[in-house]
Fold these 4 entries.
Entry 1:
Amino acid sequence: MKRRPSFPAQLPLASAPSRPRAAVPPPQIPQGLGMDSDAVRRRMVQKLAQQGVSDAAVLAAMGTIERHRFVDSALANQAYEDTSLPIGLGQTISKPGVVARMAELLRNGRPGKMGRVLEIGTGCGYQAALLSLLATEVYSMERLRGLHDKARENLRPFRLANLHLLLGDGMQGYAKGAPYDAIISAAGGSELPQAWLEQLATGGRLVAPVVVAGSAQALVVVDKTVQGLRQTLLEAVHFVPLKSGVA
Ligand code: SAH
């Protein structure tokens, strides 16, 4: 498992040879949906609010992070629809409604930012970016090197200094960052790994999909209190499987 190196500094523009102004082509900034994405994202946030997401911090984060930058350019025009999308290697980015719902559950109406958060399943890095706006420190783990690298690429322009990307088996958690105020998983197994429950702080909350019967999954919330663990089973969800090991 490697710690994320700091973001590379921008290349000095001054190193380009000087040329007459007119000959200099305009800078090639990949814009995706360009300026329009602000308006499209605002509409997405309005819809999330209509669907019942009421946490202002979550809605603000969803309005800030540009989801279209995390999906293939061929899918960018679907980035603000409430749909999950493929991100490569058989994995998917969850639909915005589910991401917002889980973030809201994780925050649990607490004022201010969450402290340290552990995310299992970095994927394309979208949810990690959102979490970095909602927490003081985020550790995000991914077991597939291809996605870990892709997330780093996707996240670089956002320059989120409090987000740490880790390549490793999230089923082991990340003991060095523990205890966590919040743990969130984007992949569901038949049970919650013991490491997550151990690494959760007292007063902390875990939100994850778990397999409840056959291949059916439900969202589970675990609160760690001084009296012990309190588990609440919520609505049915559909996440990719939680797998062990690094690949
Ligand atoms: N939050 C992600 C969702 C990615 S899908 C996003 O915004 O894109 C879930 C991810 O969990 C997949 O990339 C999958 O490879 C990863 N995953 C599954 N089991 C894992 C494990 N044990 N440790 C770390 N990541 C895991």
Entry 2:
Amino acid sequence: MDDALIISRGLARRYNVGKTVVAALSGIDLAIPRGEFAALVGPSGSGKSTLLNLIGGLDRPSGGEICVDGLSLGSATEPQLVRHRRARVGFIFQSFNLLPTLTALENVESPMVLAEVSRSERLARAAGLLESVGLAQRISHKPNELSGGEKQRVAIARALANRPSLLLADEPTGNLDSKTGSAVLDLLCNLVRQNGLTLVMVTHDPEVASRADRIFHLRDGSVQHVDNRRKPEAPA
Ligand code: ADP
Ligand code: MG
């Protein structure tokens, strides 16, 4: 899988806490092909969020290597890392992380402001994205005027604003009831397939993980095993 979108070798992240060193990740080797839905599962504290943040360029490794689309994030310059976060990656969080004073439309526009997209293009794209997540009637609502499921749909639209190739989601259904969560998951899976995106999702929920093409089971900062759930290709 040399052409995988995400490749890590010996990836490590250590935190200094007082005089002790916490190894959040130690020696992660993995490869995630383009266009796949990969799930990261494991007990609390096993390093799932740390791994997701390293893939997203929100954090830097303490050792080993993590490459996304050919860019080695450990040795990338700060501007390269900013460009990676802004142009290549869309983030979705458990607690939505919408800006409370902005409308749904303005929340979806906000990453495009940073990417210096023109105002007319921003408005057109944000409205189109909100429509694609089923919220055409909610564009002027503020987050506190939206349900949890609607907030997460806005967050998904926002994650897609700069047309990323990679979506990273940290327990995106964790704050939703199971029916709403499964509708949000359906939406996410459909958008990912339609747009040929790669999705890496942290989840506690075995049912959510069962939708993935590949499941990485983490424990104590290592990959314990990998389930490849893609059906083997039919012989020619
Ligand atoms: P998960 O998302 O699987 O619950 P995390 O990636 O958040 O796990 O954390 C992995 C380990 O690293 C945990 O032991 C956690 O306490 C530790 N950790 C995470 N972030 C920090 C930090 N900023 N400082 C110190 N320790 C941290
Ligand atoms: Mg976590």
Entry 3:
Amino acid sequence: MNVKETKVIEVLSRFAIVGEYSHFEVLQSGHINETYRVYFIRNGELKDYILQRVNTYVFKDPVAMMENIVNVTEYIRAKIKATGVSAKRFVLHYQKAKDGNYYTWLEDGEFWRCCRFIDDSISLLEADTVKVAEESGRAFGRFQKYLSDYPVKDLHIVIPHFHNTVNRYDIFKKAIKDDLVGRRESVLGEIDGYLALEEAATKLYKLQCRGELPLRVTHNDTKTSNVLFDAHTHEHLSVIDLDTVMPGLVACDFGDAIRIVGSTCGEDETNLNKIAVDMEKYEAFTKGFVGELKSMMTKKEVETLALGALAMTVECGIRFLSDYLDGDKYFRVHYEQQNLDRARCHLVLAQKMLEKLDEMQQIVEKYAK
Ligand code: ADP
Ligand code: GN1
Ligand code: MG
């Protein structure tokens, strides 16, 4: 038994899970938390769970975060059950620890939680088919629809200024100035590229500040890997990774998804010639997302969706580049230049989006009718 497994077993012993521990796997897809799939044997059958060590560098108040998650998942569960359908595969279900909390703190300060692995589900890093693109749009649209009457003010602000693109630019400029690990000289072209996009990318946040867009309960991290699909049909089952559920803009959820679903490449593609907006998948996602939300969106919200794609692509890009300049403290990297590759890829994608913005917005309008 290695050190990791010893830790996993120790943490699991604090949760009220029936059955006997069998084995575990490490899941590598997320950039933030440490995730394990753990298996138990119960009545002769394997039962699996997701065990996570929450990244407390990123989430400073994980208890508040868990309170949001538990409240929101209970709310959705009740809505699904009210339609006479079992909610088991359609919303996350966190396990209580033996002390009654939905988490456990270890003596060394680590914060852990555990939820059921959704049966017969898969997650995908990118939308490899048009169907998956449409289904992810439906998943995130429906998530917001379920929560459209949830009291927004009751949510904790888990990460302040999360999609405040103006603030993200300030942080970016500070990272350029501080140049903590001496990488600035090697990325002057990328820095100029992002500074040239500042005006266009901050428009959305400025509209929010002028009170022109309502705050809703949003997911705020709508990449494809944060949706679970049925392993056979690829229909969407549940939205996951609810850590950043907070008050936010519809356009941010739409846009943050598009930087993945609406791209011809993965988020760290190094062959820049391959990077373009995949209009077919963009349209499919839009169909799913707008189809769910058109009856509740204001005219102004509809008008800002394509802008949201540009804003979120640039914002995520400057976050990657800031982290690269700071020495890779925030996002998990699997090799030294990965944050730079991510930033370069997002820069090209954002430039391509800017050229296609009118066409992208026309597609939104088509499905919002
Ligand atoms: P991170 O915040 O690091 O992105 P996630 O909560 O997104 O962590 O989890 C990482 C991965 O674990 C997901 O992309 C998915 O593959 C898998 N996963 C998480 N929760 C579940 C679940 N309840 N059922 C099945 N797979 C899950
Ligand atoms: C992180 O946790 P994960 O990997 O789903 C990040 C998002 C970024 C994304 C970029 C809490 O998402 O904001 O858009 O990486 N999550 C947090 O891929 O910062
Ligand atoms: Mg995730």
Entry 4:
Amino acid sequence: MREELGDYMPRSRFTLVCGVLGVCFAVFAAWLIGGWGGPDTVLAVSDLGSLLAGGFAAGCAALTTRASRGRQRRAWGALTIALAGWFFGDAVWAYTELVQGVGTAPFPSLSDAGYLVFPVAACLALLLLPIGTLGQSQTRPLLDGVIIAGSLFVIMWTTGLDEVFRLGREDWFAFAVSVAYPITDIVLLSVALLMLTRARSGQRGLVVVFTLAMAVMAVSDSLFVLLNANGSYTSGALVDAGWVAGLLLLAVAAMMGLRSADIDFGPARPGSQTALWLPYVPLPLAVALGANDDGSPTLMIAGLVVVSAVVARQLIIAEENRRLLVTVADQALRDPLTGLANRALFRDRLDHAVALRIRDGRHLAVLTIDLDDFKLVNDSLGHPAGDALLKSVAVRIVGCVGEGDTVARVGGDEFAVLLEDCSEPPIVLAHRIFDAFDQPFSVEGQEVFMRPSVGLSTGQSPDEPATSAEALLKQADLAMYAAKRSEHGGVAAFTADMHRIDLREVDPPRDRDVTPRRSGSAGLQLFAQLRRAIDHAELSLVYQPKFAVPSGRMAGVEALVRWDHPERGLMLPDEFLPLARQNGLMGALTEAVVERAVRDAIAWRAEGTDVPFAINLFPPTLGDLELPNRIVRIVTDGGLSTDCLTVEITEDFLLGNVKRAGRVLEMLRDWQIRISIDDFGSGYSALSYLRELPIDELKLDRHFIAPMLTDERAEAIVRAIIDLTHRLGMTCVAEGVENAATAMMLADHGCDVIQGHYCSPPVNASEVLSVASPW
Ligand code: C2E
Ligand code: CA
Ligand code: CA
């Protein structure tokens, strides 16, 4: 028994009720056997006991019906009807016997109508109970029951039932009713047995009790018919105890149903062997006996019913097998999660399409799609949410392409599309897929923003046509990586120069171990908002001026990013940059910062002052060879010359690929962009890079500046570094200058530029031109 509807029926109460029922039944049976109080009392006890048992069982079934849902509810409802029918029959019976005092009630009577409702509705209940595994037809056990019952009927008929029939010919109706009992019982019992072979472990207890009840009822019915045919049945005989036992067992089954929560379907699995051959056990004998008979119409009808049931059963099995085969074949080529084509099927279709292109010159295109930051969803919302998201993504992609195109899931968060019906330019379709991600996905009640990187190859690049499936896929992948690195575009078509991208250098976020700083869904939400803020230029900048020493002239400003969050208020870089860093948003953020700073610089220029400005660079972005070009383009597009720009970068970049970083710095330098080493002295310090790399400025870390007045060693270091920068032909900037005395001392030591709260805190763009000189 699994999860319990404990409120209704805790285990202790269940055990107690079962015990009480057992005792009651024992007393009841003993009474009938002992014949205490004479025949009249026994009759009354028998009839009332049976009535009580039926009423109790019907009540239990009704309760379970009320407490359950869906299909289970219908099953228990059917059992309630079955038991109510029985109760009605018993009530009529008891009335005729006890009130009208007829002794043993006549047969057949109105009560038989009630009794016969029972097997039909109980059979329905069994078939409705969600027993077995998903995908198994419920018609099959019914047909099986019909085959068994029909065969048994043929056997019974040919071995003497026809005699009984001939004798009882004058009361045809009575005969039909008495035959209806064993037949419906056999169907019911067979169905119960077949259900038992199907039941999975968690369902078995209930089905065993159910089957047992059916067996006891069926045996009692048969005994009744037998005794009745002999004319030896008297009410109050032990047969009555059999029915009561059956009724009580059904009450227990209903209580078990009440105790167990939803009986769930397991995964599809082949049906049991027993269920396959069991229905055919009585069939050969029935055929043998039936063939020898002279062929009464009754037998003919029974035979026809059995044959039809066998044929129908075989058809159902054949159909089930066919479906199973199709499913198996299909599963080998499908991604089980999304139902899209898998890598194997995609490759097969692509090979085919390439062959057609070579033969007929048909067009084709390959798109590869990779989700940015997918791992974040998995990490913060859990894998089921990740799976749900992938399914929704699959639906969106499929919604963008044509009927004849193949969409596949080729990796965790990677998809591929093969376009064969190129009725519109593939790049248009690539953009349509990209745009389909504009709307957030709803995952477990949360809005999740996803961005894809889409790479396209048509194999028709003039420099490098692709003629094989591999080449097409590789080109699409290269384009996809280029798209991922560009941060803004999201879509890229293959061009020959993309080979320059060293794939090992590309660090797509999905491969990184991304743990959002604010873990959980709050982190995810904040991340979605940050991405939005970056995309919609909602981040703002403040500027902290730097002043030349000793002139006191403003030497420039440093742009510092701020995020005016709708709920959290103004956020400082420390509160959101880690999130951007961990999730690959720094490139986009940098570009947004440069764009904003350029706009402000244009405004300052319009007021008559050119203000040089510095931006901060996230060291790993120096791995991106495209970065200098993008920054330069933004500056020159704004009509500014690039020499007004300084990039500040911490020594951390040396931890990465120094060669590549050096190339990027050279490229920036070629554009007269100044390079400043930020927080100098605080991090990685192999001074050799000062000799090798094109550096214009050192910004002395404020942790040396702040204690200068009181700590001689700090002062000595500052002096030495100022000296060093001058010898290397660089500018020295002291940051974090908080008071006049420190400023004086720095001036004494020959520091070129100072920056800090003493001179000016960071201010808004509109205030930059009115910041006064510190002296
Ligand atoms: P940073 O580049 O060293 O920037 C200087 C930080 O020191 C700023 O904090 C500034 O407000 C603060 N500061 C200025 N004067 C003083 C002073 O006299 N005393 C003290 N104690 N602090 C002072 P903020 O704006 O919170 O920036 C923190 C860091 O965030 C920056 O350090 C920088 O590494 C990073 N950051 C800021 N904006 C950007 C950006 O646009 N891109 C990148 N990649 N990083 C940024
Ligand atoms: Ca800085
Ligand atoms: Ca700094």
